[in-house]
Design goal:
The chain contains 10 helices and 9 strands. By secondary structure, it is α/β, with parallel strands linked by helices. It has a single domain, classed as 3-Layer(aba) Sandwich (Rossmann fold). The relative contact order is 0.20.
């Protein structure tokens, strides 16, 4: 299938008054403590991250009964409205016994954050391992790529993934002008988005790709590569926070499994703590291969 092109623009001018401003660390505390206190709405267009976290939690609690087909446009549009406020010869990476033991502990987790330095062997090993739902079982892959080109990630799959792959869809958020040549992958659906700030569009396309596979006998696996690139490209931490909050819920509702790449060295500590707090399952790793479950 030839790559499709989807382009929309979404610009947001955020203004914060001093009385409504809350630090990222304040938000992280409130998310971890699962506070149910309603945030007082501001007369201005934007709200602080702290009150935003309260708002999306209340919205999620009110819609726990949602079983609508995620492929329906109006359902998805409403759900993703919260974002706007209104991606040979090599050998496969291997994991040691300790790593395998940790991965067994998180076997039932639907959303896993892998936190550590980007572009190292440990990161690629974890990614390839998490893409394999079960040994030898077929998987349907959905790749959300920011900054990394489809050809780069698809080449990685060709070289390192040992499980049989039944189907692949790519949502490609292009953050540079260089044209990516992926003619050799012409049988793969590639949706291109040229505006990295268009988080609502990114969310709808990702949700559609997962929802389209709900009737498949294979496990659907989503790889988000990466949160750090999305934060830097979108240049709006509040909207990226909203985006991830909705996306985690969509993964749960479609029965998919997902893992998200995140490099803490690229962000201030309070930003790291805020985004980490969205996840119940966090794998912390380093370049030497050390792995721990937070």
């Amino acid at each position: 299938m030839a790559p499709d092109g989807d382009e929309e623009s979404d610009e947001s001018n955020d203004s914060k008054d001093e009385s409504g401003r809350s630090s990222f660390s304040h938000l992280a505390d409130r998310v971890r403590n699962s506070s149910t206190e309603n945030a007082q709405e501001s007369d201005r267009q934007e709200r602080s991250l702290a009150s935003l976290a309260d708002s999306v939690r209340q919205k999620s609690a009110a819609n726990t009964q949602d079983t609508a087909d995620p492929s329906v446009d109006n359902t998805e549009s409403e759900e993703w409205d919260v974002v706007d406020g209104g991606d040979t010869n090599a050998t496969a990476p291997t994991t040691d016994a300790k790593t395998e033991a940790v991965l067994e502990l998180i076997d039932g987790a639907s959303n896993v954050l892998i936190k550590g330095p980007a572009n190292c062997a440990t990161e690629e090993s974890l990614c390839s391992r998490l893409m394999a739902a079960r040994p030898e079982e077929k998987v349907d892959l959905v790749l959300l790529l920011v900054n990394e080109s489809p050809s780069e990630r698809l080449s990685f799959l060709q070289n390192y993934i040992t499980n049989p792959i039944s189907d692949i869809s790519v949502i490609y958020v292009q953050t540079y002008d260089r044209q990516d040549k992926h003619e050799e992958f012409s049988d793969i659906s590639i949706k291109r988005i040229s505006d990295p700030t268009d988080l609502r569009r990114i969310g709808i396309l990702t949700s559609k790709a997962m929802g389209a596979r709900q009737d498949s006998p294979n496990q659907t696996v989503l790889c988000v590569h990466s949160i750090s690139d999305l934060i830097n490209a979108a240049k709006d931490n509040q909207r990226v926070f909203r985006f991830l909050h909705v996306l985690l819920g969509r993964v749960d509702s479609t029965g998919a499994r997902a893992h998200y790449h995140f490099d803490p060295d690229r962000h201030a500590n309070e930003i790291v703590q805020t985004f980490v707090s969205l996840f119940d399952t966090v794998l912390d790793f380093d370049e030497q291969g050390s792995l721990s479950l937070e």
